[in-house]
Amino acid sequence: MARRALPTVVVVTLLALLPITAHAEVTPSVPTGTPVTSVTPPTETPSSETPSTETPPPVETPVPTPTQTPTQKPPAAAAEPLAISLDQPATTWEDRPLTFTGKLNNGAVNWYLSLWQALPSGWTLRGATHSTAGGNYKITYTPTGPIHTTFRVVVGPKFYGTPAMSPARIGTAQDKKIVITKPAASYVTLTGVAVTGTTVPAEPGLEVVLQDLLGSGAWRWLTSVKTDAKGNFRLLVPDNFPSSRSVRVVSRGVPTTSVEVSASAYVVIKAGLNPKVYAVAASMIPKTYRAGCPVGPASLRLLTLNHWGFDGLMHKGELIVRDAAVQKMITVWTANLNAKFPIRRMTRVDVFGGSDVRAMEADNTSMFNCRQVTGDPYSLSPHSYGYAIDVNTVENPYLAANGVWYPKNGLSYRTRTPARPGMLFAGSTLTKALEAQGYFWGARWAKPDYQHFEPK
To answer: Which of 391, 394, 268, 398 is nearest to 333 (CA)?
Structure first.
């Protein structure tokens, strides 16, 4: 049976049902320098073509045309985020600057940068500057006390909302100190008592002041010195009277915020004889010794010791004494010091040119003097042997064999009443101490010599 041709309408309908060839999707290129967060390529709508009206070729399974990707430049990298570096600052001391350095990664010049410190109360502004060539910067901050805290540098004048913030760095300022050496348990008067110590760090040429605490609670200035090349100091404490006091050392000549105060220390000074014995050379006694004297320098000693003065303070005295009498004198003067009996002056007679009269007028207490008896040129004085001693010669005058009282400025003391400071009596501690060592007191002679003692 003969086939009949399909109607044209049917052919067209079949062609319309066939798949349309696929089209490639093209990703648009990204302009260089533009930050890219996400690029979503646009979707193309497939093209609709008007189907051909011509007789189609025999029906076959359609094969999709391979997709061709257009050649194009890859997307540009995103711009580097703004950043600021901060170097680790070197450790310093309080009242000396901490230096913070770093740079902007974009190399910007004249940008405003601020330094912030982390405190318990929040971030606190500590300094600001502008960036220089290459984005570099330097900010300094001088702490007024020791610190070990976090710092950051930000772009702009505000910490919060800044476009860039540096990493955190620890800034350290060590504690400046005045350190004093712990005092001994106690000291003896007139031994050069001093408060010593050093500055940390060493500050050569710094003036430091020694202060003591008054009963009112106020600190009183005693003395001051400047530290040596290593920052050490030595401040003398007044030691011419017994005392117990709290002391401290304070820096001076620096800004108020930079003043350093040491810890306080307790210094105890006790009254003491502190006797010292030295050999005697002829050069030490040029006016009181000469060839032919019964005792030479080799048999003499220089004895130094502390004694109370009429001013209520301790003084250092010296006696030229026979070597065999040294220990006796130490015993006697220890008792006298404990009794606080005052001595006006105690020095070798050579200071007065060897003159017994001048020495007496100076109210001097002395021992050795190779000479004749004052008022009796025919007798050798017991002082020529280094044993005899005269005490407070003005308050205790002497009636010479010629009937003259010496010294002339001691005449008011011929009358032994009323008792006045420095006068000797039978019950005086010094009188009894000397008599206990085998001495005879000249006040007991018919012509009294109230100042004189010699061995029996």
So the answer is: 391
- DSSP string of 165-187, one letter each residue: BPPPEEEEEEPPEEEEPPPPS-E
CATH number at residue 162: 2.60.40.730
- Helices 429-436 and 326-339, interaxial angle, to 10°? 160
pLDDT, tens digit, for every residue of 65-91? Answer: 444 444 455 555 567 899 999 999 999
Closest CA to 400 of 418, 420, 433, 376: 376
Question: Rounded CA gap, 104 and 113, in Å?
Answer: 10
Which domain, by its residues, includes 338? 276-455
Amino acid at 362: A
E-strand stretches of 309-386: 314-322, 345-346, 364-365, 372-373, 376-380
The tally of CA atoms less than 13 A away on the side-chain side of residue 273 is: 19
Dist. CA 128–CA 130, nearest whole Å: 7
The pairing of beta strand 169-174 with beta strand 92-93:
parallel
Residue type, 80: E
**Full DSSP string of 339-355:** HT---SEE--GGGGTT-
Whether 170 and 183 map to the same domain: the answer is no
For the beta carbon of residue 108, count every other beta carbon within 10 angstroms. Answer: 15
What is the C-alpha to C-alpha distance for residues 15 and 22, in angstroms, rounded to an integer? 17
Is residue 302 domain-shared with residue 426, that is, in the same domain? yes
Where among 236, 251, 270 does a domain terminate?
Answer: 270
Provide the whole-model pTM: 0.73
Domain count, the chain: 3
Answer yes or no: do 297 and 445 share one domain.
yes
Regarding whether 419 and 315 lie in a shared domain, the answer is yes
DSSP for 269-283 reads EE-----EEEE--GG
Among 270, 304, 329, give the residue marking a domain's end. Answer: 270
Q: Report yes or no on 2 lying in a domain.
A: no
d(CA 310, CA 316): 13
What are 111-166's pLDDT values in tens digits? 999 999 999 999 999 999 999 999 999 999 999 999 999 999 999 999 999 999 99
Whether 87 and 169 have beta carbons less than 8 Å apart is answered as yes
438 shares its domain with 317: yes
Of 344, 441, 361, nearest to 405 by C-alpha is 361
Same domain membership, residue 432 and residue 290: yes
Examine the domain organization and report whether 158 and 239 are in the same domain.
no
